[in-house]
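3.2 Worked example (two chains)
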Amino acid sequence: MIVHADRVAPTPWKNGGGVSRDLLFWPDAIAWRVRVSLADIAADGPFSAYPGVQRWFAVVEGDGVELAFADSTRLVRAGDAPLEFDGADAPGCRLLAGPTRDLNLMLQDGARGVLRRAAPGVAWSEDWPQRGRFDIATRTLEWGLPAGPLHTAGAGFWIGVAT
């Protein structure tokens, strides 16, 4: 399955700070255990709280963000490794220098997984039952990749999930 982010209608956030494009829900949009989305953050503000959800967050475009958690502050910039955190933590978000586009992996109800940077020419061989790749240049999510080592020609992210 291939999902083109630019063909997915954006959903505005309740706080007015951005929009999200949902690229994948599994098994469905109502009872999801796995959610992959591309978000455009346009203004400073808090993340939504998602108790019981494991979150992965990566900056795809833009200068990055500063996330303020209760016990620490983290800078996340384009090119950094994805950040994993508890969805209940709902950090405050400050844009470093203008809007960003960000990839999110959210897991709940026993699902577990990873979000990893994909570098051109570097193989990814983590063996997850469900695997996908987000390509930054084309803004596409390819889901249902086969087992075994995978290679990429462009920058992006690998996603591995077990449900």
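3.2.1 Second chain
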Amino acid sequence: MSTGTRKPDDQFYREYILDHYKNPRNFGRLEHPDISHEEDNPLCGDVIGMDFRIKDGVIEDVRFHGRGCAISQASASLLTERIKGLPLEQAKQIGKADVLGELGIDISPARIKCALLSLKVLKVGAYGLADEDEEE
């Protein structure tokens, strides 16, 4: 992409992603989680795990751990911020477009799996579902 075609807010979102990468929200482990699940992206080596504490059908607390690129780590940080306090049924409705929209920049096809790894952890871990709309 040439610099002449860059959207004016691209720089803001790049800094936003870097902030979530360098200062991740909800990073760590929960003691005695109700649900704990981990997934990896074998293509690049990224790993994301999440621990959930559920109370009365609501995600009372969530933490993520793992390692990987700025996109996968920022995406996990953003997703945990979004789902903390949500009813499980509402969190279940979060999809690919929501996660990519939160990142705010165009994600190349090679990085889509990085961006969606945390969503896969949520869907498989909390609901036992494969993310049917992950592939395009």
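3.3 Remarks
The mean pLDDT is 88.
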